[in-house]
Amino acid sequence: MSQSYNRGLIEDFSRWREFSAGMWAWIFHKFTGWVLVGYLFTHIAVLSTALSGAAAYTNTIQALESLLVVRILEVGLLAVAVFHILNGLRLLFVDLGVGLEAQDKSFYASLILTGVIVVASVPTFLSGVSI
Amino acid sequence: MAERYTSFEPGGRRWLWQRLTAAFLVVVLAFHFFLLHFVNHADEVTFALSQARMEQLTYFSLMILFLVTATFHGVNGVYNALVNQGLSGTRKTAVKAILGLASVLLIVQGVRTALAWAGGVPI
């Protein structure tokens, strides 16, 4: 039997104080998705310097990686990617009928696990950069 | 009748393909991050190291599949998000065409780059 959930209009962001966990999960998944697809196009553009020769590619990547702001943006990208992966797994399980009753808890778990993985990765992502 | 809380059109296959590519991307995106940030470090990247990986057919074909599935998943996600926001009619058709063209260009550029590293298809 179908159930009806009256969530109201999620696109009305002025209601954000009334949003439930599942609505925040939907917003975060959309936001991280937009960031990731934007990054995909940027990533291929940067990697395309390989078409200009070995030196152009190596110099471009190493110049970018020497910048602290790039490393910080990479940590942000990791956060976005990890959340999208974990919440994506949550969505796949819910679509398969597993864990729907605990979908709010699995959203909180996705957030916490994302935070732990990102914090633990900061030393690796900032290694070798001069401040 | 229950309302439909989904970004996808009823009866379409976009939902299914979004899920199938998601299942693949969950594994390969995690592998990609782990390999290029934890096994190898980003500041140690050189053309020669990228070339050494791309010259292996397994890695080359995995990256091409990664490019194609990530492009589909990302662009399909954007398209369905826009439809969900009310995109319709001529604008919907135009957006579909633009996103389709952008996808083709991205994949072509990605494949050209992979071929530049590998020096051709590594068979």
TrEMBL record, chain A:
Main localisation: membrane
UniProt cross-references to InterPro entries, sorted A to Z: SdhC_prok, SQR/QFR_C/D, Succ_DH_cytb556, SuccDH_FuR_B_TM-su
Gene3D superfamilies (alphabetical): Fumarate reductase/succinate dehydrogenase, transmembrane subunit (1.20.1300.10)
CDD domains, per the entry: SQR_TypeA_SdhC_like (cd03501)
Subcellular compartments: Membrane
Keyword Nucleotidyltransferase applies: no
Keyword Transmembrane helix: yes
GO cellular component, one term: membrane
TM regions (residue ranges): 31-56, 68-86, 106-126
Annotated GO biological process: tricarboxylic acid cycle
Entries under SUPFAM superfamilies matching the protein: Fumarate reductase respiratory complex transmembrane subunits
MF annotations from Gene Ontology: electron transfer activity; metal ion binding
Keyword terms: Heme, Iron, Membrane, Metal-binding, Transmembrane, Transmembrane helix
Pfam families: Sdh_cyt
Protein name in UniProt: Succinate dehydrogenase, cytochrome b556 subunit
UniProtKB/TrEMBL annotation, chain B:
GTP-binding in keyword set: no
Gene3D superfamilies, per the entry: Fumarate reductase/succinate dehydrogenase, transmembrane subunit (1.20.1300.10)
Any one GO cellular component localisation term in the record: membrane
Protein name per its UniProtKB record: Succinate dehydrogenase
Localization per Swiss-Prot or TrEMBL: Membrane
GO MF, one example: metal ion binding
Protein keywords: Heme, Iron, Membrane, Metal-binding, Transmembrane, Transmembrane helix
Annotated InterPro entries: SQR/QFR_C/D, SuccDH_FuR_B_TM-su
One Pfam family from the record: Sdh_cyt
Membrane-spanning parts: 20-39, 59-82, 94-118
Organism superkingdom: Archaea
